[in-house]
Amino acid sequence: MKYQIQKDKKRRTNFVKCNLKHYLLKSLLLETMKKKKSLVCNFLFFKHFIIMQKLQNLKLYSYIVKIQNRCIFTGHPRSISRYYRMSRIVLRDFASRGKILGLSKSSW
């Protein structure tokens, strides 16, 4: 499980590093697609081609869809609380011990 946690951290850091670059290239790509003038058509096509190559050369793990929410303690991939980034099992255990402030077992 430690390998999965390290892999998740690596994907998240790659996403943070490449996120701005990805959005800039996407906006440039949309900008070149909007401009369709006959005089500069060849130049825009060349520019469009270069931007597409740069987007394809970005790391595969730099996309947000590749990030999977995992428990930060156990690495469990399912039933994760987004706010705490813990699985339901660990969250229940911490809450019953009183380790998380403001969270307690409900009783009525």
Strand order of the largest sheet: 1-2
- C-alpha geometry: elongated
Enumerate how many helices there are, as a single number.
3
Order of helices and strands: HHEEH
- Let me know the average pLDDT: 78
Cα-based radius of gyration, to the nearest Å: 22 Å
- Report strand %: under 5%
Oligomer: single chain
- Total number of distinct structural domains: 2
Count of DSSP strands: 2
Question: What is the SS-derived class?
Answer: mainly alpha
Helix content: 40-55%
Main sheet specs: 2 strands, antiparallel
Termini separation: 38 Å
Unreliable stretches (pLDDT < 50, length at least 5) are none
Per-chain topology:
Blueprint: H1 2-34, H2 41-56, E1 80-81, E2 86-87, H3 88-97
Task: Write a concise keyword list for the protein shown above.
single chain; 108 residues; mainly alpha; 30s Ribosomal Protein S14, Chain N; 2 domains; 2 strands
Structural account:
The chain has 108 residues and is mainly alpha-helical. It folds into two domains: 1-68; 69-108, Irregular (30s Ribosomal Protein S14, Chain N). 55% of the residues lie in helices and 4% in strands. A hairpin with a 4-residue loop joins strand 1 and strand 2. The longest helix is centred in the first third of the chain and has 33 residues, at 2-34.
